[in-house]
Amino acid sequence: MSLVVSIVGRSNSGKTTLLEKLIAELKRRGYTVAAVKHSGSDFQLDHPGKDSWRLAQAGSDAVLLASPTRLAFVQKASRPPSLQDVIDFLGNGYDFILVEGFKGSSVPKIEVHRRDAGQLMTSPDKLLAVVTDERLDVAVPQFSKSDGMALADLLEKSLRERSCAGIAPADGRSPWSCD
User: Fold this and answer.
1) Tens-place pLDDT, residues 110-121
2) 41, 146 Cβ separation under 8 angstroms
3) Per the domain annotation, does 97 fall within a domain?
């Protein structure tokens, strides 16, 4: 089962930049990673006039584009998808599912916080860690934005604890001794 962690924070706090660093470091360590970006507004992956756009315009409820190296799937949603809907769609083929957003979900969160933003937006009991430019009076691990490796260590430790608790990584392998 994948370890799902949501990266939250105010607009322009550095969430995407942090995700880029985490993904690169976890991939360097040999893990499989899926990234999910939550958007509060509609988006367009295809362009007017392209064949897949034309199929959607004709009324198809879902369009899948397949090339030798990529898949893209666009499906009309009858309701806003929950994070669980997204996780179910992705399946269990990943060690980590790193989510930007879905701040109301129940998954562990890493909040990216800037001093000038005021208070944390997440209750400390729901936080796995905080990435911040100031020392905060909260009982969770705190990292600077340059601590990508240390934050990846924390995620790796969380995955290891899940594995040792009997929740297997995505491919069923457990690279750790749990003694």
Assistant:
1) 999 999 988 899
2) no
3) yes
